[in-house]
Design a protein that fits this description.
Blueprint: E1 3-14, E2 17-27, E3 31-35, H1 42-49, E4 57-62, E5 65-66, H2 67-76, E6 78-82, H3 93-100, H4 109-118, H5 132-144, E7 150-154, H6 162-175, E8 182-187, H7 193-196, E9 199-204, E10 207-213, H8 214-220, E11 222-226, E12 241-245, E13 248-253, H9 256-263, E14 268-271, H10 274-281
Parallel strand pairs: 3-8, 3-9, 6-7, 7-8
Antiparallel strand pairs: 1-2, 1-4, 4-5, 9-10, 11-13, 11-14, 12-13
Helix pairs in contact: 4-5
């Protein structure tokens, strides 16, 4: 099985927003970062992955199975970590384990208690008294304790302090060492993905702009800087979008080879961060 998640020609319209004809594949055994601005369609896509929303058109498969006939089998193999508390606020961690544990055939009580100890989670305090970071740790402990093969994380680091964000990323790297897990990590904090992502899927206005390895993103996209006198109708074709200023221009390209052939040594070519790419592609649809 090469792909853990396959979405083919998926469309969904909800409250005036639409995901359009989405084709998205998530490779087994890797970390895929799912990026896009707030409101781009990340949460809608994840809800369809989780069968919390049903697509209007298209096909969603996880582990090669569809939800119509294999919903329980699919959800046995998924762990979900959300930006915020998904449990009843009056429950404590011990109560949550007692309720959630029996739902999974592969629930591992010893593993759960190891994560509770590692995360320093109080067993008897109500979830509503937890900080955002502690709530996220509780969700992660639950997700990991039934040996989930696919961990779906929706904005897990939003609102967390930098130290805990780094601890979380270190933990995720550790989880990937055995090669058995797949992580789908949705975020608008693109710097979190520089350290852990193998693939990047970028969604904008409900459409997938690209789904590439982090290596290919670095190879294809770059920032180019030079004098505005170098720009004309022909040379501008090398760029996705251009920002002009009195001191010169800065532009994003998705074809570094074409820039080198067109401009030679008259421009400066720099690595484009994921944040740069998101910023420059805002509003662009021609490079889907």
């Amino acid at each position: 099985m090469e792909h853990v998640v396959e979405m083919k020609n998926v469309s969904k319209t909800l409250n005036g927003f639409s995901v359009h004809n989405m084709n998205l594949a998530v490779k087994q055994g890797f970390v895929t970062g799912f990026i896009g601005a707030n409101g781009a369609g990340k949460s809608t896509t994840i809800k369809m992955m989780m069968n919390l929303l049903k697509p209007d058109d298209g096909e969603v498969k996880l582990f090669g199975l569809d939800y119509r006939t294999h919903e329980k089998a699919i959800k046995e193999r998924i762990g979900f970590v959300y930006d915020g508390n998904v449990f009843y606020e009056g429950l404590n961690v011990k109560d949550i384990k007692r309720i959630v544990g029996p739902a999974y055939k592969s629930w591992d009580d010893a593993l759960f208690h190891r994560y509770v100890e590692r995360f320093e989670l109080p067993l008897n305090k109500a979830i509503k008294t937890f900080s955002k970071g502690m709530q996220m740790k509780a969700s992660l402990a639950i997700a990991l304790s039934h040996h989930a093969e696919l961990i779906i994380m929706d904005e897990p680091t939003a609102g967390l302090d930098p130290i805990f964000r780094r601890e979380l990323l270190d933990l995720l790297q550790e989880l990937m060492l055995d090669g058995r897990r797949t992580i789908f990590f949705s975020t608008h904090i693109t710097t979190d993905l520089d350290r852990i992502a193998d693939y990047i899927a970028f969604i904008q206005n409900g459409e997938i702009v690209f789904n590439q390895s982090i290596h290919d993103v670095a190879e294809n996209y770059a920032l180019v800087k030079g004098g505005v006198e170098l720009l004309d109708r022909d040379t501008e074709k090398a760029f996705v979008r251009i920002h002009r200023a009195s001191t010169g221009f800065e532009a994003l390209t998705d074809n570094i080879g074409a820039v080198k052939e067109t401009f030679g040594n008259t421009v400066v070519i720099e690595r484009a961060s994921l944040e740069d790419i998101m910023y420059y592609l805002k509003g662009e649809k021609q490079h889907v």
